[in-house]
């Protein structure tokens, strides 16, 4: 599959990526548990149908030592027994924030309360930032038609 547009070859696309990556760096300093970001990034990418990001975050997570069984269950996290309470709170928040227009209230009160109880203010700020950035990346890649499957961990380091 060929991309419909090579966004990252354009000067503006490169600037967008640079600034999005700066936001990711800030979020990475929030003190979240090491396994959590890839779970959230993977789930939002699955919801948004972004094959490029789904491929990337699955492979990055495995490369960082995550159990493939847990990654395979991210799409069915509610029925899975392999996630902690904090991971469940983060996945619920990621789902609702990704589907923000699908609910009358945006983020349900119980989902927000679970996230507030599981994370410090800095961790929550980092989590919200990661969710916002992955949704932006998903949209960039889906619109550009970025193909999935060829990502190698560390490729963009």
Please tell me about this protein's structure.
The protein has one domain: AhpD-like, CATH 1.20.1290. The mean pLDDT is 95. With 157 residues, it is an all-alpha fold. The protein has 7 helices and no strands. It is globular and about 40 Å long. It comes from Glycomyces terrestris. This is Carboxymuconolactone decarboxylase family protein. GO terms for molecular function: peroxiredoxin activity. InterPro entries: AhpD-like, AhpD_core, CMD-like.
Q: Give the second-level CATH assignment, the architecture.
A: Up-down Bundle
Tally of strands: 0
Question: How many structural domains can be distinguished in the coordinates?
Answer: 1
Using the alpha-carbon principal axes, give the shape: globular
User: What is the tally of helical segments?
Assistant: 7
InterPro entries: AhpD-like, AhpD_core, CMD-like
Protein name: Carboxymuconolactone decarboxylase family protein
Organism: Glycomyces terrestris
GO molecular function: peroxiredoxin activity
What's the quick description here?
With 157 residues, the protein is mostly helical. 62% of the residues lie in helices and 0% in strands.
List the topology elements.
Elements: H1 11-28, H2 36-48, H3 51-63, H4 68-72, H5 85-98, H6 109-118, H7 121-144
Helix pairs in contact: 1-7, 2-3, 2-5, 2-7, 5-6, 5-7
What are the defining features of this structure?
AhpD-like, CMD-like, Carboxymuconolactone decarboxylase family protein, mainly alpha, 157 residues, 7 helices
């Amino acid at each position: 599959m060929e991309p419909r547009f090579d966004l990252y070859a354009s000067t503006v696309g490169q600037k967008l990526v640079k600034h999005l990556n700066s936001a990711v760096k800030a979020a990475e300093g929030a003190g979240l548990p090491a396994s959590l970001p890839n779970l959230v990034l993977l789930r939002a990418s699955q919801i948004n149908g972004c094959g490029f990001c789904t491929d990337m975050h699955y492979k990055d997570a495995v490369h960082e030592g995550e159990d493939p069984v847990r990654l395979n269950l991210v799409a069915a996290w509610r029925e899975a027994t392999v996630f902690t309470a904090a991971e469940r709170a983060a996945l619920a928040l990621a789902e609702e924030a990704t589907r923000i227009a699908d609910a009358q209230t945006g983020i349900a009160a119980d989902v927000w309360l679970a996230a507030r109880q599981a994370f410090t203010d800095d961790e929550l700020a980092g989590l919200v930032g990661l969710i916002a950035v992955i949704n932006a990346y998903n949209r960039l890649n889906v619109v550009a038609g970025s193909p999935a499957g060829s990502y190698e961990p560390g490729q963009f380091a």
